[in-house]
């Protein structure tokens, strides 16, 4: 699924990263547990989470995640935005819950990791 489709479907705002890059995300994973994220062995995934701290960005970097969607109206801190821009991570913010974000994206063809 294209990044622009994810943004449109979840009514997300882009707060960091290069949206001009053609991100073709094949799967999504929803979690607030970064230890679960670190177990993933999948490329081109979207992480949907309610966790909003610098550790999230570091975890996404280690797990080779390209795009993170912050759910439940969570806001990225200036430190998160700066670090995401440095490492090339796209950070999105949506008013949708994790459940709704996951459901809308699944309904429109984004596959789950599991």
Structure commentary:
This protein is of the alpha/beta class and 114 residues long. It has one domain: Udp-n-acetylmuramoylalanyl-d-glutamate--2,6- Diaminopimelate Ligase, Chain: A, domain 1. It is 36% helix and 20% strand. The chain has 5 helices and 6 strands, in the order H-E-E-H-E-H-E-H-E-H-E. The chain has helices at 3-10, 34-37, 54-62, 78-87, 98-107, and strands at 13-16, 27-30, 45-49, 67-70, 90-93, 111-112. The protein has a 6-stranded mixed β-sheet. Helix 3 runs parallel beside helix 4. The longest helix has 10 residues, at 78-87. It is globular and about 35 Å long.
CATH top level is Alpha Beta
What is the domain tally?
A: 1
Number of strands: 6
Number of helices: 5
Q: What is the annotated CATH architecture?
A: 3-Layer(aba) Sandwich
Query: How are strands sequenced across the largest beta sheet?
Result: 1-5-4-3-2-6
Helix content: 25-40%
Rg is: 12 Å
The stretches of 5 or more residues where confidence is low (pLDDT under 50) are none
Give the overall form.
globular
CATH topology: Udp-n-acetylmuramoylalanyl-d-glutamate--2,6- Diaminopimelate Ligase, Chain: A, domain 1
CATH H-level superfamily title: HprK N-terminal domain-like
Through-space gap between termini: 17 Å
**Biggest β-sheet strands, sense, barrel:** 6 strands, mixed
Strand portion, in percent? 15-25%
Global structural class: alpha/beta
Key traits:
single chain, 20% strand, 114 residues, six-stranded mixed sheet, globular, Udp-n-acetylmuramoylalanyl-d-glutamate--2,6- Diaminopimelate Ligase, Chain: A, domain 1, 36% helix, alpha/beta
């Amino acid at each position: 699924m294209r990044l622009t489709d994810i943004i449109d479907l979840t009514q997300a705002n882009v707060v960091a990263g290069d949206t001009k890059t053609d991100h073709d995300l094949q799967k999504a994973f929803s979690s607030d547990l970064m230890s679960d994220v670190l177990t993933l062995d999948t490329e081109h995934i979207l992480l949907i989470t309610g966790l909003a701290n610098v550790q999230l960005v570091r975890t996404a970097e280690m797990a080779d995640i390209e795009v993170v969607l912050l759910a439940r109206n969570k806001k990225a801190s200036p430190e998160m935005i700066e670090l995401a821009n440095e490492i090339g991570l796209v950070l999105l913010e949506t008013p949708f819950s994790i459940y709704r974000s996951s459901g809308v994206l699944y309904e429109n063809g984004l596959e789950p990791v599991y």
